[in-house]
Design a protein that fits this description.
about 270 residues; alpha+beta; Arc Repressor Mutant, subunit A; Beta-Lactamase; 2 domains; three-stranded antiparallel β-sheet; globular; disordered N terminus
Length: about 270
Amino acid sequence: MIGKRPTVSTRDLAKAVESSKAPAISRAAAVLRLLGKSDTPLGVQSIARELGLVPSTCLHVLRALVAEELVSFDTDTKRYALEAGVLTLARHWLRRNQFTDLAQPALDRISQTFGATSLGVHIVGLDHIIVVGLSQSAQSFHLSTQIGSRFPALISATGRCIAAFADIPEARLETKFKTLRWDDPPTFAQWMEQVRQTRKRGFAVDDGNYISGVTVVAAPVWKARGKLSHALVAVCIGNAQRAELDSLAEALRSSAHTISNQLSGEALPEWG
């Protein structure tokens, strides 16, 4: 859950373009994502090279995105960057996304109480989770993640929640698991045992597997009965003491259950 690694590699973007059944849309999405994760504007040759596109095709996509005001073009540097038009799309999504408004007070409370950085994440199937809520702790430790950051769905504590509650065949989980990158990777058997524990307890813990020296705790949020949609996540530096970890997990689990009831409009079972 930390922005230590690129959230979407250019290799993944290029593969998505190559395998897409709607290549024009996939190319445009890949360009937007590439520009979104770049710290500086990029030229057409750089974009085409990173995404494995023919430069003329890449230029055609860029010009279309400029016309739609999703990408800007600097006539002096001949480079492209995201344009403010993407904010219009984001604003419409945020306006109808009740979870962010409901989760933010809980994220702030957890950060202040436990000195952790708290995240609200939106689950996008088995592919990605997207950070849609964030509360940094007052301590000196801060994450490099931000709203809109994407991570592989099954990584860290959130991934254990998804595996525990999303009713996914074990064979498919194993296939996805093999693609994950960890600092201290568990075996699939160890990970599945942790998934089973998550199903019993209603929360998951990643104790330094994803990133050494970092403890991540997550609890699932349900949009409706049986429909896992989000998670609340807390990230702490170092190995948390058992009592503190239990208190943090209970705070996450309780807040996640309250938000689930608010999203669904009914009193859901303890684990959705």
